[in-house]
Amino acid sequence: MTVIDLSSDTATRPTEAMYDAMVAAKTGDEQKRADPSVNVLCERVAEVLGKESAVFLPSGVMCNNIGILVQTRRGDEVVTHHTSHIANMEGGAPAAVAGVMVRTVDGEYGQFDAETLLRAIRRSPKKNVAQTTLVTVEQTSNRGGGSVWPREAIRDVASVARDHDVAVHMDGARLLNAAVASGLAPADFAGHCDTVWIDFSKGLGCPVGAVLAGPDDLIERAWRWKHRLGGAMRQAGVLAGACLYALDHHVDRLADDHRNAFSLAKALADIPGVQLPLGMPQTNIVFFDISRSGVGSADLADGLARQNVSIGVESAHMLRAVTHLDVSEADTATAADVIRDLLAKRA
Ligand SMILES: *Cc1c(COP(=O)(O)O)cnc(C)c1O
Predict the structure, then answer these.
(1) How far is ligand 1, taken at its centre, from the CA of residue 138, in Å?
(2) Which of 27, 179, 239, 324 lies in the 20 to 30 Å Cα band around 203?
(3) From ligand 1's centre to the CA of 169, what distance in Å?
(4) Number of the ligand 1 atom closest to the C-alpha atom of 202
């Protein structure tokens, strides 16, 4: 019985070839910086992102935490979009871990412009005003429907930030999706940011791992936080082996995920009662609204689960479907057919 799991691109299982790469990987003591596979991985990611150094971490959330910790002080303000993962999905970590305030801003598709950032920045000499020291940009924007920030938009935001001595951190969980979708190099986006990370456990199909990159001095400071937060590892080469395999074999194929998301969205748009509030997907995430169908999201998700299709419930009438390595074109067609049937029968 095959399950079609559209709930997240974290749902991938390592392929046989990826397992082989993990078994073959050379290992050492990662926290002594003596794991050869992790060292090669960090060098490669730093090069791909156009940064001096990089550090291997267990998760994207830890990359965000450490990116904030090394570029802020307690009581500072971090500007981020109101839909961002940092503001919504990390257990209040900016406050709990870094002791910073989050100032959220608005804009379409999970993005904001330089003007909006300018209005949000506070850099007053008055001692009763919190100081903005960091802005974060999510590429692609998850809650923005996998939208790709145009390079120029990031450049303009970063330029306003620089003018006000505000650092720029990119949550690049899906930066490689943005690069593949736009035909630009990852460094074309990352070059405008001080710190940037990519996730290996999303569309790249690895079991664990993320790499945070930036200038030498910030990555040195990141290492202390990696130890403090329990992110320093031992024979992590088995994980880096999977990541290196993914860099060689799973990047270009992200285009397949984007194509499948597009055809899924097209099929969904034809179903009576279904709307695509964020338009057609640019990458691998499809949000769809079923308020006109008279069916609730949870009921549709339950009906789908009974037919072995898993999907994300975002709100009472909004659902999220994500394509990835373990979802084929036929799977997306099947999922759309089941959704059409369920809505016709009112779930
Ligand atoms: C998944 C995700 C994260 C967190 O990454 P983990 O590796 O799951 O900790 C951060 N930001 C965005 C935009 C994400 O989608």
Answers:
(1) 10
(2) 27
(3) 14
(4) 1
What pTM did the predictor assign? Answer: 0.97
Ligand 1 probe mutation, 8, 89, 198, most atoms within 8 A of CB = 89
Q: Are 335 and 321 in contact (CB under 8 A)?
A: yes
Q: Which residue lies with its CA nearest to atom 3 of ligand 1? A: 60
Nearest to 148 by CA among 32, 253, 52, 278: 278
Whether 325 lines ligand 1, by a CB cut-off of 6 Å, is no
Both structure tokens of 191? 């070059």
Q: Provide the token pair at 48.
A: 């791909």
C-alpha of residue 344 to centroid of ligand 1, in Å: 35
201 lines ligand 1 (CB under 6 A): yes
- Condensed to tens digits (0 to 9), the pLDDT of residues 231-287 reads 999 999 999 999 999 999 999 999 999 999 999 999 999 999 999 999 999 999 999
d(CA 113, CA 50): 24
Q: Note the pLDDT tens digit of each residue in 71-119.
A: 999 999 999 999 999 999 999 999 999 999 999 999 999 999 999 999 9
pLDDT digits (tens, 9 = 90+) for 130-148: 999 999 999 999 999 999 9
Q: What is the DSSP string of 130-152?
A: PPEEEEEEESSBTTTTSBPPPHH
DSSP 207: S
